[in-house]
Amino acid sequence: MPKPTATITAKAKDKTVERIKRFLELGDYDVKVTIDPNATDTVVTVGTTTLKNPTPAQLAATMDLLLPKKSSTYDLVVIGGGPAGLAAAINARSLYDLTTLIIEQYAPGGTAATAVNQIDNYLGFDEGIDAGDLCHRAVLQAKKFEAQWLPGYGVTAFKPSDDPKTKKHEITATNSDAPHDAVTVSASLVLLATGVIPRKLTQPTAAAFEDEGIYYYALPADAEGVTAKDTIVVIGGGDSAGRAALMFSGKGAKVVMLIRDTLTKTMLKVISDKIKADKNITVVENTEATEFDAIKTPPPDNPNAKLTVVAKAKSYAVTAVYALISADPQTKWIEDAGITVVRKNETDKYGLAATGLDIFLDAIKKGTFKYEEHKKDLENVTDMATNKPGVFAAGDVRYRAERRIATAAGEGTEAALAMHNYLKANPKVLDAEAGRAAPYYYLA
Length: 444
Description:
By secondary structure, this protein is α/β, with parallel strands linked by helices. It has helices at about 15-25, 55-60, 85-95, 130-145, 240-250, 270-275, 330-335, 355-365, 370-380, 405-425, 440-444; strands at about 5-10, 30-35, 45, 50, 75-80, 100-105, 120, 130, 150, 155-160, 170-175, 180-190, 195-200, 215, 230-235, 255-260, 280-285, 290-295, 305-310, 315-320, 320-325, 325-330, 340, 350-355, 390-395. The chain is about 25% helix and about 25% strand. The strands form 7 sheets. Strands 5, 6, 9, 10, 11, 12 and 25 form a 7-stranded mixed beta sheet that branches.
């Protein structure tokens, strides 16, 4: 299906323009940016609507994403709009008629929408499908079933209830561009599907170029204007970095891959083999970038160069840097709310949400497990349930999850079924006044 279009007119292609562009691209829009030195505002046109200096929430409304209505009470609040969150919301709405709100801090589709590769092994798409297109279809499906959206807001407070029959879970989300703009909602059920966010470079000189030469996503749109006159640095040795390198090389650009270890240590063989055979890609192993600086006057043989990157005492003049160096969950606020978080080792500062048997395994490890006290809970253990009643987790934020789009969607579907079974066992959890699904569970 053809993509909807959007245009941005601004005085310069700065961080604000880049964020707006990426928000629209992650929403599967084809975006054209025009630089006008005389412009006083950043003007965005989406379809027939024109906005000046828009926030993500304003863009979302223009993109026809459903925003919260007057009601602040829901059967289900899904925190995270990636494949896991979308699959859960679609099943919760289509099968169980649960009033549902999706809170997504960045853009519809989550991190999965930034994948550059064609997905060849997703069930039902025999010719493959782009990750962004798959996520866009899922967003349309969620809209079809009237799941409501709150994009551009990040959760800043989460107060889970120990007894949802008498008190609902409470979630406060804040507008990323307007800290005073906060929304508080309550729900009988909560799904934690926040996934992971890209890990950023720690070199002191890197921060100044974020979204202005250094990027932590590589979208297919990034390669559209790339030519043989461009040199791109890709930092990272994983599958995403490899696919990005091949994407830019496919447009004729010279690509330099800076890898801390070796090309084949963690990358899929099918990708590393293609990189080895690609004459446009130079792989520099056992190294990392140490310094970044702006180029005021590009060299004649590299007219598009904007940055210099120093690695192993060698300097590279490049058009852009794409740092694809893994990703981390943001689980501190989850742990602060009393949700059990499991760390892979002592140096793991983030941890992942524990569900099912991992809750009890963690208690055994800490010496707090009491069999007689937990016997009944063990008999009713649910793979997607956390240690708080009515709070579930799915996708990359969950301990033992695999970072694959297909498995995240499967976990979201499984989480919706787990919620359904939880409500059948605890019908009074739903508010008969707020939820249309309440009579079904009361009478079941």
